[in-house]
Design a protein that fits this description.
mainly alpha, disordered N terminus
C-alpha cells in the first residue's frame, strides 16, 4: 500500500475528533458545490416562470426517493467497509465494496423501470395540475437515467469509507462546476428549457462517475482493491448492507412523504405558487445545512470504525463532538440567512415573471432558516446508528423527527391555530427540534449499552 493510503486508514482509526474534521471539511466543500449548482439550477429554472419552479417543487419528492436509493446503498456499503477496516479485515472490506456495486446496479435499474412506466399517474397523485408538461420534461430525463446518480453516490461512499474524502470531493467538485456551466447553455442558449436543466444534471454526474471509475479500476491506487478476484458472493454481506440501506432508503421516503404532506398543506392554504416558494426557501436552508450533513457523513465512517474496533469511548466522542461543532456552525448559518433573507430572495425572483415572489420567499426563509438549528441533534444521532449498522434505529429517529413531528406540528400551527403559511413553516421547525431530542436520547442509550457490553466481554476475557 502507498503511504497516502496508510495515512488515510490511520486517520480514521485514530482520534475521532481529527478524523471527523479531516473527513468533513472536503465533504462540506463538495456538498456546498453540489447545492450551489442546485441553487443555480433553481435560479435558471425560475427564469422560465412560476409554473417551471412549481414543477420542480412537485417533482422534488420523487427526486428525494432517488437520492435516498443512492444514499441507502452507499450508507450500507460505507458502514460495512468502515467496520471491517476497524476490525482489520481487509479482504471482507474489499468484498463488501464489490457487493455494494452489485446492489446499486440492481436497485437503480428496478427504480428506473418503475419510475418511467408509471410517471404520469405518479405525477397526477402528486397534484402537478397545470405544471404537468414541465414536470414530465424534467422527470423523464432525471429518472430515466437514475442509475447514474445511484452509482455516483456509491463510488463516493467507497472513497469516504477508507478515509479518502479528498478525491471524492474532487470528482464532485468537477461535476458541480460543469453543471453550473451547462445549465444556462442548455436552458437558454440551446433553448431546451427545463429539459436542459435535467440534461445538465445528468451529464455532470456521468463525468463524476468516469473520474472516480478511472481512479478505482485504471489507476488502482486505493487502499481497497476492487478487482473481481476479491469478489466472493456472500449472502450475509447483502443482508448486512440492506439492514442499513433499506431503512436509509425509507428515511428518504419519509422525507418525500413529508414534502408531499407539506406541499398539500401549502396548496390548500395558498395554491401552487406557495409550493414553489417553500421549495425555493428550503433549497436555501438545505444549502446551509450541507456543512452539517458533511459532518454527519463523516460520522458514519468514524462511528463504523469505532464500533468495528469495539471502542465505545471513541463512539461516544464521535457523537458528542459532532453535535458540538455542528451546532456552533448552525448558529452562524441561521444568522446569515435571517439577516440577508430579502437579498437571497431576489436571486430567485429576478425576472418579470417571478419578481412578485420576492417578499414571500424572504418571509418563508426568515422562519425556515431556524430549521438549521434543529439539525445537529437528530442527524448526528441518525448517522451514528448508520455507522454501527443499526439502520432500523436510524429509521425510527427519522420517522418521528421528520414525518410524525414535522407534519403534525405543521398542521397544528397552520390549520388548528390558524397561523396559515407562517404556521406551517414554524411547525416544520418545531417538529424537527422535538425529533432531534428524541434521536439524541436513543443514541446515548445505545452507546451506554454498547459500553457495558464491551466492559463485560473484556472482564470475561481477563477472567
Amino acid at each position: 500500500m502507498a503511504e497516502a493510503k496508510t495515512d488515510n486508514v490511520e486517520m480514521i482509526t485514530g482520534d475521532p475528533k481529527k478524523a471527523i474534521v479531516k473527513l468533513a471539511v472536503p465533504m462540506a466543500l463538495s456538498m456546498l458545490l453540489i447545492m450551489l449548482y442546485n441553487i443555480a439550477d433553481s435560479i435558471w429554472v425560475s427564469g422560465l416562470g412560476p409554473e417551471a419552479i412549481a414543477a420542480v417543487g412537485f417533482v422534488t419528492p420523487l427526486y428525494i426517493i432517488l437520492v435516498g436509493l443512492g444514499n441507502g446503498v452507499a450508507a450500507g456499503t460505507n458502514s460495512l467497509i468502515s467496520r471491517f477496516i476497524g476490525a482489520e479485515n481487509y479482504q471482507q472490506a474489499n468484498n463488501a465494496a464489490l457487493h455494494g456495486i452489485l446492489l446499486s446496479a440492481i436497485i437503480s435499474s428496478v427504480f428506473t423501470i418503475i419510475a418511467v412506466v408509471f410517471m404520469v399517474p405518479i405525477l397526477d397523485v402528486l397534484g402537478v395540475g397545470n405544471t404537468m408538461r414541465y414536470a414530465l420534461d424534467y422527470s423523464y430525463i432525471i429518472f430515466g437515467l437514475s442509475v447514474v446518480f445511484v452509482f455516483e453516490e456509491l463510488l463516493s461512499a467507497i472513497f469516504r469509507s477508507e478515509g479518502d474524502a479528498r478525491r471524492a470531493t474532487g470528482a464532485i467538485a468537477v461535476t458541480a462546476v460543469v453543471n453550473m456551466v451547462l445549465d444556462p447553455l442548455f436552458i437558454y442558449i440551446f433553448g431546451w428549457g427545463i429539459s436542459g436543466a435535467a440534461w445538465a444534471t445528468v451529464l455532470s454526474s456521468v463525468l463524476s462517475c468516469i473520474i472516480m471509475g478511472y481512479w478505482i479500476w485504471f489507476k488502482k491506487d486505493l487502499y481497497l482493491d476492487l478487482t473481481l478476484k476479491n469478489y466472493t458472493f456472500q449472502t450475509n454481506l447483502i443482508t448486512e448492507n440492506l439492514q442499513v440501506a433499506i431503512p436509509s432508503t425509507f428515511e428518504s421516503l419519509i422525507f418525500s412523504a413529508l414534502a408531499i404532506a407539506i406541499n398539500l398543506m401549502l396548496q390548500i392554504n395558498a395554491g401552487y405558487v406557495a409550493v414553489g416558494i417553500y421549495s425555493v426557501a428550503m433549497r436555501v436552508v438545505q444549502f446551509a445545512t450541507l456543512p452539517l450533513i458533511a459532518i454527519g457523513t463523516a460520522v458514519v465512517t468514524v462511528a463504523g470504525v469505532a464500533y468495528g474496533a469495539k471502542n465505545p469511548k471513541n463512539l461516544n466522542t464521535t457523537l458528542s463532538y459532532s453535535i458540538k461543532i455542528s451546532f456552533l456552525i448552525s448558529i452562524v448559518l441561521v444568522a446569515v440567512m435571517f439577516i440577508f433573507s430579502p437579498q437571497i430572495a431576489l436571486l430567485f425572483s429576478y425576472t418579470e415573471a417571478s419578481s412578485f415572489l420576492a417578499p414571500q420567499i424572504a418571509g418563508a426563509l426568515s422562519i425556515l432558516c431556524f430549521f438549521t438549528l434543529t439539525v445537529p441533534l437528530g442527524i448526528m444521532s441518525t448517522m451514528v446508528f448508520q455507522g454501527v449498522g443499526k439502520g432500523m434505529h436510524s429509521f425510527i429517529i427519522t420517522l418521528f423527527r421528520s414525518l410524525v413531528f414535522d407534519s403534525l406540528f405543521a398542521y397544528i400551527f397552520g390549520f388548528v391555530f390558524g397561523w396559515g403559511l407562517n404556521g406551517i413553516y414554524a411547525g416544520v421547525v418545531f417538529g424537527s427540534f422535538i425529533g432531534g431530542i428524541f434521536g439524541y436520547i436513543l443514541a446515548k442509550r445505545f452507546i451506554k449499552k454498547f459500553t457495558n457490553e464491551v466492559l463485560e466481554n473484556n472482564s470475561k476475557t481477563i477472567g
